[in-house]
């Protein structure tokens, strides 16, 4: 117990002599030197490699974003180009369909005219043939009437 009391009294003497919380003696520059040495070692071992990796990662992300942006722009340009080509193709298809319809209508009109002309020609030929047959029949009837008239005349004169 004596030793314990002695230690307590020595500590009281030391705290009174040292002057409180901060001592400005040779340990302060040593602590500052240790801190600076620790900062240099941490900088070399930890901060530089980590910052290098983070810089590489940032560069990779930046490059990826740039590449993605340019790819997106190219894709949008291609989409616009293909939409324009599709619109032009649709327009051309509509024009081709319209022209085909007009050509088909013209062909139908021509065929109808030709059919009408053929029908009119057939009617005219049939009318002419009927007229010829009528004239022939009338001539035949006239000759028969003449013959019968002569026979009647001869029979009447005989009587």
UniProtKB/TrEMBL annotation:
<dbReference type="InterPro" id="IPR028987">
    <property type="entry name" value="ATP_synth_B-like_membr_sf"/>
</dbReference>
<keyword id="KW-0472">Membrane</keyword>
<feature type="coiled-coil region">
    <location>
        <begin position="72"/>
        <end position="158"/>
    </location>
</feature>
<comment type="function">
    <text>F(1)F(0) ATP synthase produces ATP from ADP in the presence of a proton or sodium gradient. F-type ATPases consist of two structural domains, F(1) containing the extramembraneous catalytic core and F(0) containing the membrane proton channel, linked together by a central stalk and a peripheral stalk. During catalysis, ATP synthesis in the catalytic domain of F(1) is coupled via a rotary mechanism of the central stalk subunits to proton translocation.</text>
</comment>
<comment type="similarity">
    <text>Belongs to the ATPase B chain family.</text>
</comment>
<dbReference type="InterPro" id="IPR002146">
    <property type="entry name" value="ATP_synth_b/b'su_bac/chlpt"/>
</dbReference>
<keyword id="KW-0793">Thylakoid</keyword>
<keyword id="KW-0175">Coiled coil</keyword>
<protein>
    <recommendedName>
        <fullName>ATP synthase subunit b', chloroplastic</fullName>
    </recommendedName>
</protein>
<keyword id="KW-0138">CF(0)</keyword>
<keyword id="KW-0813">Transport</keyword>
<keyword id="KW-0406">Ion transport</keyword>
<dbReference type="GO" id="GO:0045259">
    <property type="term" value="C:proton-transporting ATP synthase complex"/>
</dbReference>
<dbReference type="Pfam" id="PF00430">
    <property type="entry name" value="ATP-synt_B"/>
</dbReference>
<keyword id="KW-0934">Plastid</keyword>
<comment type="subunit">
    <text>F-type ATPases have 2 components, F(1) - the catalytic core - and F(0) - the membrane proton channel. F(1) has five subunits: alpha(3), beta(3), gamma(1), delta(1), epsilon(1). F(0) has four main subunits: a(1), b(1), b'(1) and c(10-14). The alpha and beta chains form an alternating ring which encloses part of the gamma chain. F(1) is attached to F(0) by a central stalk formed by the gamma and epsilon chains, while a peripheral stalk is formed by the delta, b and b' chains.</text>
</comment>
<dbReference type="GO" id="GO:0046961">
    <property type="term" value="F:proton-transporting ATPase activity, rotational mechanism"/>
</dbReference>
<feature type="transmembrane region" description="Helical">
    <location>
        <begin position="31"/>
        <end position="47"/>
    </location>
</feature>
<dbReference type="GO" id="GO:0046933">
    <property type="term" value="F:proton-transporting ATP synthase activity, rotational mechanism"/>
</dbReference>
<dbReference type="GO" id="GO:0009535">
    <property type="term" value="C:chloroplast thylakoid membrane"/>
</dbReference>
<dbReference type="InterPro" id="IPR034679">
    <property type="entry name" value="ATP_synth_b"/>
</dbReference>
<dbReference type="InterPro" id="IPR050059">
    <property type="entry name" value="ATP_synthase_B_chain"/>
</dbReference>
<comment type="function">
    <text>Component of the F(0) channel, it forms part of the peripheral stalk, linking F(1) to F(0). The b'-subunit is a diverged and duplicated form of b found in plants and photosynthetic bacteria.</text>
</comment>
<keyword id="KW-0375">Hydrogen ion transport</keyword>
<keyword id="KW-1133">Transmembrane helix</keyword>
<keyword id="KW-0066">ATP synthesis</keyword>
<keyword id="KW-0812">Transmembrane</keyword>
<keyword id="KW-0150">Chloroplast</keyword>
């Amino acid at each position: 117990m004596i030793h314990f009391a002695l230690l307590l009294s020595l500590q009281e003497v030391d705290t009174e002599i040292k002057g409180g919380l901060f001592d400005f003696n040779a340990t302060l520059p040593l602590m500052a030197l240790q801190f600076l040495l620790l900062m240099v070692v941490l900088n070399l071992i930890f901060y530089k490699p980590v910052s290098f990796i983070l810089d590489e990662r940032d560069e990779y992300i930046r490059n990826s974003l740039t590449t993605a942006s340019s790819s997106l722009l190219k894709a949008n340009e291609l989409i616009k180009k293909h939409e324009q080509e599709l619109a032009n193709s649709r327009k051309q298809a509509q024009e081709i369909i319209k022209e085909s319809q007009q050509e088909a209508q013209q062909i139908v009109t021509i065929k109808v005219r030709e059919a009408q002309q053929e029908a009119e020609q057939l009617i005219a030929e049939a009318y002419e043939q009927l007229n010829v047959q009528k004239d022939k029949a009338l001539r035949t009837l006239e000759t028969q009437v003449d013959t019968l008239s002569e026979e009647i005349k001869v029979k009447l004169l005989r009587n």
